[in-house]
Each structure stands twice: as structure tokens, then as C-alpha cells.
TrEMBL record:
It is an enzyme of class 2 (transferase). Its EC number is 2.5.1.141. Pathway: Porphyrin-containing compound metabolism; heme O biosynthesis; heme O from protoheme: step 1/1. Converts heme B (protoheme IX) to heme O by substitution of the vinyl group on carbon 2 of heme B porphyrin ring with a hydroxyethyl farnesyl side group. It is found in: Cell membrane. It holds the Pfam family UbiA. CDD domains: PT_UbiA_Cox10. The chain crosses the membrane at residues 28-45, 51-73, 94-116, 122-141, 148-171, 177-196, 222-239, 245-262, 283-304. It comes from Litorivita pollutaquae. GO terms for molecular function: protoheme IX farnesyltransferase activity. Keywords: Cell membrane, Heme biosynthesis, Membrane, Transferase, Transmembrane, Transmembrane helix. The keyword Oxidoreductase does not apply. It is a multi-pass membrane protein. The gene is ctaB. This is Protoheme IX farnesyltransferase.
Amino acid sequence: MSDASLNTTTQDGDAGFGDFFALLKPRVMSLVVFTALVGLLAAPVPVNPIVAFASILFIAVGGGASGALNMWWDADIDRIMKRTQSRPIPAGRLSEGDALGLGATLSVFAVVMLFLASNIVAAGLLAFTIFFYVVIYTMWLKRWTPQNIVIGGAAGAFPPMIGWAVATGGISIESVLMFTIVFMWTPPHFWALALFMKSDYRDAGVPMLTVTHGRTSTRKHILVYTLLLAPIAIGTAFTSIGGPVYLAAAVVLNALFIKGAITIWRRDETQAEADGYRTEKRFFALSLVYLFAHFLAILAEAGLGQFGLGGWA
């Protein structure tokens, strides 16, 4: 089915399937699925393929439910921000009640089904993740403090821990490290976006760091968090989920990330505005590659481990 047919709506505002799917924030959901899958496959306990598939599916549904509830609560500012005005609710194709009903229903379904498919620890972590993203971040932190994305970033960092818990039924230093990589990566990733989207957040009254402290301060914060992230990311190479493949990838990726952060830190607004924030946009794109490649390297080590080649053994 084509994208056009998925997003077809009638003239009176009735929504198509694509509009309901858009409520689930599929791009964010894809990151949730990938990191959760890596957490599950990197765990030292094998999981039945059917159980693994079902668990990742329910984790994805839980992530999508969080997105729908976020769009329900943020409908007012989504109507103001240019990059969100085409979403189903501000565009008038769905109501806020539609998003609330879908999000709440899918949240309960996802948690209950993950519990039935795996274990109470994984289901509990998923329930807490949904609560944290919707209540702690969306309803409270996002409109209250410029540290919103720092603390709120925990919501996006839980999926690999959930995947690990599906396999092991618990939490370990390895799953905490995967959580920490995503948690520390989130601020420089989103602050880079905020550098060239500042007017959107300002117009909507969202106290993003660029709005409350300015772009110069934001550039410093990006550098600091990048420098703090590097030893954590590289140090993970020396745990059971790491190895020489991961170490090589982490060293290269963190060198590039630090170089990019230093370049952004040294720039002033005159330079940035003159080139249309191209450097900031490149750093934002690099941040996506950075996270994906780290988890891909963890997955590669897990795959090599199946043949006795992974890790430092």
C-alpha cells in the first residue's frame, strides 16, 4: 500500500489509517524497537524466537502508545510549532480524544501482553517508561525546566533495559550501561536540533535551553555532555557486551562526535546564521549515526559471540 493511500483523508476531516499510525510516532518507535532488540539479543540468556518477536512487538506498541499520549497532551503547542503543525491533531484530521483513547488503550494492552509474553520485570519497566515519558517528561518537565530533555531523556533510554529484562528477568551493569549511553546521548542530540529550531520552541513557550540560556550556552552544554558520554561509551567495550569490534567503532564514533561538538562550541551566531546552521544540522545527523552504530556494534559482538568469536575471549 502506498504512503498516499495510507494518508488519504476525506474532505470533512475523517482520518485515514496513516493518521492513526502517525500518532504512534513511528520514527521514534523505530529507535525503541532497535535498541530494545539489541538489549534482548545481547543478553547472555537465549530467548525463544516467538517470545522474542512478541516481546519486541509489545515494546513497540508501548512506545507508540507513549507517542499518542504525548500528542494528546501537546496538541496546543503542536499547533504553534512549524515542525509539528502537520501532525494529525493540529491539522484537524484527528481529535485530542482520539489520541487519548488510542494511547491509553495501547498502553494497558502493551504492558499486560508483555507481562504474559515475558516477565513482570520487563512489563514493569515498560509501564514505568510510559509513565515517565507521558507524566514526568511531557506533562511536567517539558514546560517547566530547561533541563527537560536531560531528565526526560531517561524515557528513551529504557528500551534496551526492557529488552535485556525480557531475556534475563532482571537488570545488570550491561543493561544499565546501554541505558546510560542513550541517556547521555539525548541532550547533545536534541540540543543540536534546538540550535536551528529555536524559534519554534520560543513561540510555543517551551523552555528549551536555547530559549532560556541562549545558543552560546547550549553549545557549551553540548560539548560537556559529549565529553562525559565518550568514556561511558568507550568503557562499555570492556564489559560482556563489548569487544574489539565494539571498541574500534566506539573510538572512531566518539572521536568524530567530540570533534563535531568542539566545532559547534567554537562557532558564533554570525557564522551559524550565515551558513544556515549547516554545521549544527550535520552534527544532528551524526548523532543519529552515532547511536545507531554503537548499538549495531553491540549487536555485532553478540552475533560473533554465537560462534565463539565475540568479546575478548
